[in-house]
Amino acid sequence: MAFKEISIHDLQLNPFDKIGRDWALLTAGDASGSNTMTVSWGGLGVLWNRNVATVYVRPQRYTKQFIDAADRFTLSFYSPEHKRALGVLGSKSGRDGDKVAEVGFTPLYLDGTCAYEQAQLVLVCRKLYADEIKPGSFIDRTCDTANYPEHDYHTMYIAEVEKVYVSE
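The structure assignment produced for this chain is given below.
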């Protein structure tokens, strides 16, 4: 499948639906090695006068080592027919086998990082900032108790959206 670059200003999506309801894939690495995970938490907006994506990754996720080792990652979005595949990619670890091959996705390399040919939309993101969620910083403590019973706090990554690709 071919992709074309579009201006970020031509992007039309509801991030609350695309991330929270439809899910997305967060992928890092390159042709020498990559990993992906399904995300349903994140955001898109403007920070520091840049168009940014914010994603959250727990420390035990295999994808985290790929994100930490790279300058860029992709955030990609899929049609509803791929929801089952996104479920598999979010529930299995790449440490244990080739989950990408299991769901039949084909790697696609854009701007030195990885996405998948089955995507409808790919955001290529360059990391700007990373920090761990701090338990002492919760104002509403129920967010901590409801989401972190194991105290495995996410690392938050803020990344500039450098390029936007859509499938043709």
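Interim note for the steering committee: The chain has a mean pLDDT of 96. The longest strand covers residues 155-167.
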